[in-house]
Amino acid sequence: MDKNIIIVLVSQQTIQNVLFIKEFVKSNDDHILLISTKGMKEKEEWIKNSLNIQNKYHSIIVDEYDNKDILQKLKEFDIHEYKNKYINITGGTKLMSIETYDFFKSIENCHIYYITRGNEYKKIFPIEEENTYNFKCSVSIKEYFKAYGFESKESGLLEIDKEYTYDFLEKFLENDRYHIIQELQRKRGVNNLKKVNISEVNGLGKFLSDIAFPLKNEGIISKKEIEYLTGGWFEEYVYYTLKDANIVQDTDILCGVSKKNGQSDNEFDIVILKENQLHIIECKTYICNNDKSSLPLDTIYKLDSIQKELGLFAKPYIITLNKAHEIKEAHKKRAGQYGIKILTIENIVEGNLINNIFPNAPQSL
Question: Which of 88, 288, 326, 332 gets the highest tally of CB atoms within 10 A of its CB?
Answer without folding.
Answer: 88
